[in-house]
Design a protein that fits this description.
five-stranded mixed β-sheet, alpha/beta, about 230 residues
């Protein structure tokens, strides 16, 4: 089952990428035909209890792209992202290999990280190509909650003028140390995927005092608010 899903998404992703490459504007930003595979180790879709969505696989070092074979490098047990997602799963009472499906919002490599491309809002513009496929993927796992990674991805998924910073959902205020933290999530009607979203920062942001101090509490909040 898992291999069939991976093969189907890989095939459809390749088709979408060819459409992007043919776009006279967006094709200029495509780096390679390579697309990392989705992560799913469970042998049955019914076992999937959490969806994790990354922004895109682009890294600053082009040579490193060749080593990225799976979304978020989740095929590398000793990698920082694998440890990060595993930590999230453990606090939720889940197992990464048994309960998680991970994919990217934009599945191809760009010539630069999208936030460094100033000529256009690349994540917004490629959504016409990648968002329909992402919705199709999610239809395989009805009602599963979603973890989103990073602020740019969160902003790309929101509908209307909602809170666009991850820290806003984690209860950040200038005096957060001395006040009661109020957590929240993105409700189903506030985003383009129609699912409950729990925004998380990129893994390097955990070095910031606010996120490191709040992580466990937000995970506790998430556990009690997962549909």
């Amino acid at each position: 089952m898992a291999n069939d899903i991976k093969a189907e998404i890989a095939h459809k992703s390749a088709e979408v990428l060819q459409k992007i490459k043919a776009d006279p504007r967006l094709g200029l930003y495509v780096l390679t035909d390579q697309i990392p595979g989705v992560f799913m180790e469970a042998d049955d879709v019914g076992k999937i209890r959490l969806i994790v969505i990354g922004q895109d696989p682009t890294v600053k070092n082009e040579v490193s792209c060749e080593t990225i074979k799976t979304v978020l490098n989740l095929d590398k047990p000793h990698g920082s992202l694998h440890k990060y997602i595993s930590l999230i799963c453990e606090r939720l009472g889940l197992n990464l290999s048994q309960h998680v499906y991970a994919t990217n919002y934009a599945k191809n490599f760009f010539i630069h990280p999208p936030t460094q491309i100033v000529e256009c809002n690349l994540l917004h513009e490629v959504s016409q190509y990648w968002l329909p496929l992402l919705k199709e993927e999610l239809s395989l796992f009805p009602s599963r909650p979603i973890v989103t990674l990073g602020g740019p991805l969160l902003k790309a998924l929101l509908v209307g003028p909602k809170k666009a910073l991850v820290r806003q959902y984690w209860g950040y205020t200038p005096n957060w140390v001395t006040t009661k933290t109020v957590f929240s999530f993105v409700s189903e009607d506030e985003n383009k995927l129609g699912r409950r979203l729990f925004p998380f920062p990129h893994q390097p942001s955990l070095r910031k005092r606010f996120y490191s101090a709040t992580l466990q509490s937000y995970l506790g909040y998430m556990k009690t608010n997962m549909p």
